Each structure stands twice: as structure tokens, then as C-alpha cells.
């Protein structure tokens, strides 16, 4: 995915040498600003949400630019960046929902498009042969962030109890536990079931955020989603626990629920 592309970007002169200015993160930040302005002009976004979306866009694209380290976005990464931008809009609306009413259909609509594009970027990566470990990580983090923001929006709207936050926080709790228990940071074998579970979380939360179903139905559906998520993480924890001291951990790409798998041989960076 995140591969060098010498044909993309604007050439500039630095000390007599021509170099390429990577435009992906700049385009991502510009897209974030445009989306926030559209939401604000449509009357569905206030100052707190606008500022939260702006801060998210800045942090996201600065970190992305640093991670690229001279490479540029591949075709699948541009789809993922679009998803990330939409997630910023969901974040902005979710922040607004903490202090007042928010347009639930707009929030759910942005989330639905972002979730649909999760299927698209994986297909693009496979068809173009541009998958990479960094790209898979980008995809995974956007998935996790979107689910976290949706869980906050659903809890704030009262569509389910505060327990729904566990859906969004589980991925981050797993990562935090890895700092205390190093064996949790080991790679796990790829499983398609993770994609299924991630889709269930996203769809369930988006439907709940839309406010289209009765509260008891939403709570029951999200309880099932949380149970499936706990089972998925629990299976990975059990797999890593069984191999924590045996030296039998496989050299596989780390993959949380819903990640886009990277190839065994990552795509080379520019100039490789």
C-alpha cells in the first residue's frame, strides 16, 4: 500500500537537486477542512466539533506524513485516507453530541460511507499489488478509531448504556496491555473472522447512531456485537498466551479485528 510513486507530487529544487514533494497528507488535510466547512454550513456542526475535527485532521496528516518517510500514498491508501477524513467528520459530530443535539442521520451517513470504503480499499490493494505492513496498520487504526468515535456518539445519544463504550475501547485496551505484557505484542495468524466481527461492530454502531430502531433492539444488537468482539480478542489472547514462552510465535503480520492483510514481502519504498 504505502509505496513510492515518483510520478506523484510536485517537483521542487533543493540545493540543485530535484526532489518530489509528497501531496497525500496535504490533500488529506485540505479534504478534512472542506468536509468540516460543509458540515458547519449545513447547520450540523458547531465550534467544539469543528475544532475537534481540525485537531484530528492536523494530527492524522502530520503522523501520516512522518510515517511515509519519503514515499507517497498508493491507490489503496488514498481510499483509506478518504475513510480517515470521513471519520474526522464523524468525530466532529460526535463531539457536538456531547453538549447538544446532533443530526444523527448525517453522522450515520458519514459512518456508513466510511465503512463501505473499508471493503473498497482492501480490494484496491489486492488488485494493484500495493499492500504493505504500514498500509495495513493505517487501515487498522482508522477502523479502530471510527468504531471508538461511533461508540461515543451512541453512548452520548442514550441509544445504549455507557457499557457500549467497551466496543470502542477494547482495541486500545488490548494495545495498552501489550505495554505491560510484552507477549501480547506478538503477531497473530490472519483470520477472516476478524473482518466479519469488525463489520458487525461498525454496522451495529452506525445503525444505533442513526436512531432508527427502538432502544431495546439497539441494546440487544450491540450486546451481541460486544460479545463477538470479546470472543475475537479472547481467541487471539489465548493463542499468544499458549506461545508466550515456547518460541513458537509465527512471523506473521500483526492484525487486529478488521485489518487489511499485508503481503509476505512488503512493497518496496521509493528508490529501493
Helix content bin? 55-70%
Biggest β-sheet description = 2 strands, antiparallel
Percentage of β-strand residues: under 5%
Mean pLDDT: 82
**Overall tally of domains:** 1
Number of strands: 2
Weakly predicted, low-confidence segments = 1-21, 248-259, 261-272
CATH-derived topology = Four Helix Bundle (Hemerythrin (Met), subunit A)
Q: Which structural class is indicated by helix and strand composition?
A: mainly alpha
- Put simply, the count of helices is 8
What is the CATH C level class, in words? Mainly Alpha
Give, in spatial order, the strands making up the sheet with the most strands.
1-2
Radius of gyration: 19 Å
What is the CATH architecture assignment?
Up-down Bundle
Can you walk me through this structure?
The chain is mainly alpha-helical and 272 residues long. It has a single domain (21-242), classed as Up-down Bundle (Four Helix Bundle (Hemerythrin (Met), subunit A)), CATH 1.20.120. It is built from eight helices and two strands, in the order ββαααααααα. β1 (10-14) and β2 (17-21) form a beta hairpin. The longest helix is centred in the last third of the chain and has 28 residues, at 215-242. Residues 1-21, 248-259 and 261-272 have low confidence and may be disordered.
Amino acid at each position: 500500500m504505502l509505496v513510492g510513486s515518483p510520478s506523484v507530487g510536485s517537483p521542487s529544487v533543493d540545493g540543485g537537486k530535484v526532489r518530489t514533494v509528497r501531496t497525500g497528507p496535504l490533500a488529506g488535510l485540505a479534504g478534512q477542512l472542506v468536509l468540516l466547512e460543509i458540515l458547519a454550513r449545513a447547520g450540523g456542526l458547531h465550534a467544539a466539533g469543528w475544532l475537534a475535527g481540525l485537531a484530528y485532521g492536523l494530527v492524522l496528516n502530520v503522523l501520516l506524513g512522518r510515517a511515509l518517510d519519503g514515499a507517497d500514498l498508493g491507490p489503496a491508501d488514498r481510499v483509506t485516507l478518504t475513510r480517515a477524513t470521513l471519520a474526522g467528520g464523524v468525530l466532529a459530530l460526535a463531539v457536538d453530541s456531547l453538549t447538544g443535539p446532533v443530526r444523527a442521520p448525517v453522522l450515520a451517513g458519514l459512518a456508513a460511507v466510511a465503512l463501505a470504503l473499508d471493503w473498497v480499499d482492501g480490494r484496491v490493494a489486492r488488485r494493484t499489488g500495493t499492500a504493505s505492513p504500514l498500509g495495513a496498520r493505517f487501515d487498522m487504526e482508522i477502523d479502530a478509531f471510527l468504531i471508538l468515535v461511533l461508540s461515543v456518539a451512541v453512548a452520548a445519544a442514550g441509544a445504549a448504556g455507557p457499557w457500549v463504550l467497551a466496543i470502542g475501547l477494547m482495541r486500545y485496551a488490548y494495545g495498552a496491555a501489550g505495554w505491560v505484557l510484552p507477549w501480547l505484542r506478538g503477531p497473530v495468524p490472519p483470520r477472516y473472522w476478524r473482518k466479519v466481527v469488525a463489520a458487525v461492530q461498525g454496522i451495529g454502531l452506525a445503525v444505533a447512531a442513526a436512531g432508527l430502531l427502538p432502544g431495546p433492539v439497539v441494546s440487544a444488537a450491540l450486546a451481541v456485537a460486544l460479545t463477538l468482539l470479546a470472543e475475537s480478542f479472547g481467541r487471539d489472547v489465548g493463542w499468544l498466551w499458549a506461545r508466550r514462552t515456547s518460541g513458537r510465535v509465527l512471523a506473521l503480520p500483526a492484525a487486529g479485528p478488521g485489518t487489511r492483510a499485508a503481503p509476505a514481502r512488503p512493497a518496496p519504498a521509493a528508490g529501493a
